[in-house]
Design brief:
Elements (H helix, E strand, L loop, with lengths): L2 E7 L2 H13 L4 E4 L1 H7 L7 E6 L3 H10 L7
Antiparallel strand pairs: 1-3, 2-3
Length: 73
């Protein structure tokens, strides 16, 4: 099992919404760099990274796109 980054969010709230949306669909999600994002306070400088299992990557991106929560980059 390996994790992949499927996107980065400049906004903590959008990152949390994306995480909750995927978890609701049964996809395990981790958010990386949350603490640094809050500490620095500038989203583009230290975005929150959304991580999922490699095998869930394509489905996760599809779900986020349908819900209007596509990553910022």
């Amino acid at each position: 099992m390996s994790l992949i980054e499927i996107g980065r969010y400049e906004n903590q709230i959008r990152a949390d919404l994306a995480r909750l949306t995927l978890e609701r669909e049964g996809i395990d999600v981790l958010l990386f760099d949350e603490a640094m994002h809050r500490y620095i306070g500038v989203g583009w400088l230290m975005p929150v990274r959304l991580m999922v299992l490699k095998e869930d990557g394509a489905l996760a991106l599809h779900i986020l796109d349908e819900d209007g929560l596509s990553p910022d980059w």
